[in-house]
Amino acid sequence: MITSKTISNGIIRALLTTVFIGLILFFFYKIQSVLIYLVVSFIFTLIGNPILDFFKKRLKFNHLFATITTLFIFILIILGFIMMFIPLILSQGENLSLLNTTEIEKNIVQLINQITVFLDNHQIDSAQVLKEANITSKINFNIIPNFLNAILGTISSFGMGLGSVLFITFFFLKDRLVFMVGAKKLIPDSHEDQILNSLEKINHLLSRYFIGLLLQLFIVFLLYLIVLVIFGVPNAIVIAFLCAVLNIIPYIGPLIASFLAAILTMMSNLGSDFQSEILPTTIYVLIGFWIVQIIDNNLSQPIIFSKSVSSHPLEIFLVILIAGFLFGILGMIVAVPLYTIIKVIGKEFFPENKIIQLLTKDI
Asked: Are 70 and 55 in contact (CB under 8 A)?
């Protein structure tokens, strides 16, 4: 029989549980930087594991020396990017006058006026619409300096974050066996083999996935760079790098990259004639970027991703599409690694299920 005391106890337990969950979420919110460091370190560890094994098995390094060498390679790559891109980014910022709001407004007004003249010369009514819309009065030009100030603030804390990530990664690589032994003590004996097998397969597949992702981004970066160099776009390396990074977002990222490339191409050639130089160069760059995206979407991306996580290209496409509809851009970014984890766990714990057997036959 339910009494008032039982109901009140239930309400108190529910309130305490809600407060406890709220405190945990608040705690996670406060340490979100640490969580990000852990996630980035985990990704670095997944990428570094094959390199570490290569040094140990092929070059016969001991474990500690192989770990130090792997971390040293990461540091060299990061320093190489910093040395290569910081001067170019500063140069690009000066060329585009990104920190000068008045100059930005002046450049955009100049660009819009050139577009208007071009449309007028071709008797297109949209020129009048462009004038009536008064776009320049509706643009908040302070957005760009504010955005750059936020980036500068992030860069100022980049050193501490990078140091933390590398420190955590070192111990993830060095003590991975210790972590496995510790995890075994926490795992229930009845599921120990299944969980350990799942962790091993997840580690292997995600290592291949992130290495494949880096390879795909590098290929796209080179192809973008070739397009920009062919058409003489200033600071091609910076633009190609920024656009390649956007390819982390499946399918939508390349579209954003094309728009960004078009804007930066036009802004980089503001002193030239719009009809004879700016417009044709921008169109050629866009066509080149679309060709790169066709190559990436139909060749490099499906092959690299399907091989790295042992999934069919159509399967990968549908997973990313569904994740995008459900959780937006973040869902699209994490869709493939999360789906891979779910597949591995499903195969270990529900091996008799026919759907799981069909999806995991190559794992």
From this structure: yes
